[in-house]
Design goal:
The chain contains twelve helices and ten strands. The protein has helices spanning about 1-15, 100-110, 130-145, 165-175, 175-185, 200-215, 215-220, 235-245, 260-270, 285-295, 315-325, 350-355, and strands at about 35-45, 55-70, 95-100, 120-125, 150-155, 190-195, 225-230, 250-255, 295-300, 340.
Length: about 350
């Protein structure tokens, strides 16, 4: 365990983090592929540059629409980060940006996507800055090969290795804001699918629990699917959250890897016995959990690791998504609720295809 934790710290600290300069606006080359993302952020805007966000906790949500050009030589599931001034011929680059009002944000979500009344929301995890979350969603959207404007819910992570406890508080701070976004979209008859990563998964489940306690069946009825990617949630806490949560249209999906080194570190920091994102689908206890809590647990440990910690494997799903759309075979491993995805995406369960619909909106 000590070796695993040391490795995680070395990996996370060895790479230079992308700064706000990566968000500089550039001219889009004619004919180049782009992805348009709607943003709802509860971060404090930066003074300079004004289009960036800090790690501060804002007093209100801010809305934005950002279009990102994808370089012709892009290799899934990588993000080709700018080196110096963004060059859309070689790197991801922002080519259009505009602030929105809340009404404009909801209207844009209502009109975009494969279906006129559907939206996919990505909720990033611990240790993410704004540009990392934005470009990660752009990467997943581009690699999936489908159209539409996905939504980024951007909560104020400190984006530091040592900010784990502060991020826990920031996730809790953002809970009412996520509830507000889901409520606004639901009232406008926009159906949503949530893809929540790591600590963002706790935020997603807590927000749904809050809507349940508020009796907002009207909003919950507009949430089609919740996909928890490497969720950094203690298993006992997840049970407690779900006990107060009304059932959604489909079971919650958990994308898990038993060799997730970042979650091993999280367990150490939090003193947790087990996290939902590191469940082993061959373990009878996982089968029992899935049946009792109406979960679909999917092993994605055969997918490539994006950052070396096996914590961002979900980002590679978009690259194989086109192969999954016409796949109808099931491969049950641990019984009802536990399924497995092989490395090339040739065998996948029906519940995963439901979860994968996020990429189609």
């Amino acid at each position: 365990m000590r070796i695993a934790i040391l490795f995680v710290l070395l990996v996370l600290s060895s790479c230079a983090r992308p700064g706000p300069e990566t968000l500089a606006l550039v001219t889009k080359p004619a004919g180049q592929k782009t992805v348009t993302i709607l943003v709802a952020s509860v971060r404090v805007p930066a003074d300079s540059p004004s289009y960036a966000f800090t790690a501060g906790r804002a007093d209100r949500l801010r809305y934005r629409e950002v279009t990102i050009a994808i370089p012709p030589a892009h290799k899934p599931p990588e993000i080709e980060w700018p080196k110096g001034k963004p060059d859309p011929r070689k790197s991801f680059a922002v080519v259009e940006r505009k602030d929105l009002t809340r009404d404009q944000f909801v209207a844009a979500a209502h009109s975009n996507g494969a279906s006129a009344q559907s939206a996919g929301i990505f909720i990033h995890g611990y240790n993410y800055n704004y540009q990392e979350a934005l470009f990660r969603l752009a990467q997943m959207s581009a690699d999936s090969g489908v159209s539409g404007s996905p939504i980024l819910f951007d909560w104020p992570s400190q984006a530091t290795i040592t900010g784990y406890v502060a991020d826990r508080d920031s996730a809790a701070f953002a809970r009412d804001d996520l509830v507000s976004v889901l409520t606004d979209l639901g009232k406008s008859n926009v159906r949503t699918t949530l893809l929540a990563h790591s600590m963002g998964a706790w935020l997603a489940v807590e927000s749904i629990r809050q809507l349940s306690l508020m009796g907002r069946e009207d909003v919950l009825g507009k949430i089609d699917q919740v996909v928890l990617a490497a969720p950094d949630i203690d298993v006992d806490l997840l049970r407690k959250q779900l006990a107060a949560t009304k059932p959604l249209s489909h079971p919650m999906v958990i994308l898990a890897s038993k060799d997730d080194l970042a979650l091993a570190l999280s367990k150490r920091l939090a003193g947790s016995a087990a996290t939902a994102g590191s469940l082993d689908i061959a373990d009878p206890r996982t089968k029992k959990l899935a049946k009792e809590e109406n979960l679909e647990v999917i092993d994605i440990s055969s997918l490539p690791s994006v950052g070396g910690t096996n914590h961002d494997r979900f980002a590679a799903l978009a690259a194989v998504y086109p192969q999954l759309q016409n796949t109808g075979n099931e491969n049950t491993v641990a019984g009802t609720g536990a399924v497995v995805l092989n490395g090339v995406g040739a065998v996948v369960s029906a519940p995963f295809r439901i979860g994968g619909t996020l990429l189609a909106h």
